[in-house]
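User: Can you predict the 3D structure of Peptide ABC transporter permease? Sequence below.
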Amino acid sequence: MLKYSLRRILGMIPMLFLISVVVFFLALAMPGDSLTGEIDPNNTDPEYIEQMREKLGYNDPIYVQYGRWISNFAQGDFGTSTKYKIPVADLIAQRLPNTLFLGVTSLIITYIFAFVMGMYAGRKPYTKLDNFIGGFNYLMLAIPIYIAGVFAIYFFSFHLGWFPFSGSVDIATNEGTLDWWLSRIYHVILPALVLGAMGTAAYTQFLRNDIIDNSQKDYVRTARAKGTPESRIYNHHILRNSVIPLITFLGFDIVTLVNGALITETIFTYPGLGQLFLSSMTTNDYPTLMTLALMFSFLVLIGNLIADLLYGVVDPRIRLD
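Assistant: Sure. Here are the predicted structure tokens for Peptide ABC transporter permease:
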């Protein structure tokens, strides 16, 4: 497994290089440049604008600009945000805890509901409750997340007043206190429920279908013939094999932990990396945009590697050499 991991990590280097080239040229193809996010071209002397572009190196050949950017990036210098006027690394460090908190909370909700509903639907298929669970899941798969988010805000925030509709914490609380943590939990519940419900549908159906499929395998029939208790058959034999397909989603889960679902954070005005990514596109904050795009791509590769490694942990029959 160690050799396999090293090969995969080394294989990421050319992949990351290609991704960095794509990210750089896509940013280059967008209207304006980083300077556009700092000044108002309509109220600024054109001569001053050209002087600043020359000073910042925007008139250099493309390959020189790319080399300078990727060299600084490799050294941990991600540039300065043109919107917030602080280093991009500090800006990401400020938003990252919120995104991680939202992602972890939504994943906990996803797995709890998916395992409960998936195991019941798999053990008792084609019953009324199984049909209800299936209908609910297909409804969640059909509804766009922005529609679910707007509906949740209207119903649970405006109509019932149960949860706040924006922000990540009450500004009146002192950081680190119990009230501050309770406020953070209170603010994250609604966006996490929306984000978790969207993921629950796919997880539940995969788990249900795989449990039904595995319950008809020969090793299950053999276990029943030996008199093995039904609970042990489902929990020890069937469930362990049925969990394997869910591992394939882990790569996407890692990304969810970091970007916090772009649309969800934007709808709920939740200050995380997802909202920062979208706002950097609309404000021409290219240093932040390029850094986040490359970081998200790197995390996708890491997530896929972790998913492959966990295959061997969950299923001993799988060996990675």
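The longest helix spans residues 178-214. The mean pLDDT is 80.
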